[in-house]
Amino acid sequence: MQEINFKNLFFNSIIMGLMNARKLKNRRKKARDSDKVYKKRRLGITLKFDPLGRSAQAKGIVTAKVQKEAKQPNSAMRKCCRVQLVKNGKMVTAFIPGNLAQKYIDEHDEVIIERIGGKQGKTKGDLSGVRFQVIKVNDQPLHRLWQGKIEKGRR
């Protein structure tokens, strides 16, 4: 009959990974802190610095109409406006979608903005630094205004 060597059995089990779970767990925990997406989610950084907070849309007042130059290789001047949000007073730049739609937006108009929909909350397309777009002006849908279906409401 063969005698069992418990010392060799113990070391073989460690090498094979049978008692290695704690070490693997701690190693994974250290590696997670170097993951940028995980760290932002855990610390709540994106929510803390997002002008809209948890909401999908926000109301604001137009302070100025501006034109942003598109990124290379495009050379267009995109029509945008500076909006001061009612809920927290933060200033954001919002894109004005539609052909000649900027004619229907004046200073001191009340607009509703939403996220443009770029990847991971970033900008979309060739607009640098613009993460929001205008959807309503004085409680009138902007796309119906520039299509000529309705007239602009008074405030």
Please describe what this structure looks like:
This protein is α+β, with helices and mostly antiparallel strands. It folds into 2 domains: 6-47, no CATH class; 57-147, Beta Barrel (OB fold (Dihydrolipoamide Acetyltransferase, E2P)), CATH 2.40.50. Helix content is 27%, strand content 26%. The chain has 5 helices and 6 strands, in the order ααααββββββα. A hairpin with a 2-residue loop joins β5 (132-137) and β6 (140-141). The longest helix is centred in the N-terminal third of the chain and has 12 residues, at 21-32. The model has no long low-confidence stretch (mean pLDDT 86).
Identify the notable features of this structure and list them briefly.
alpha+beta; 6 strands; 155 residues; OB fold (Dihydrolipoamide Acetyltransferase, E2P)
Class by helix and strand content? alpha+beta
Strand order of the largest sheet: 1-2-3-5-4
Radius of gyration: 27 Å
| Shape, per Cα inertia axes | elongated
Which bin fits the share of residues in helices? Answer: 25-40%
Poorly predicted runs of 5 or more residues: none
**Intertermini distance:** 98 Å
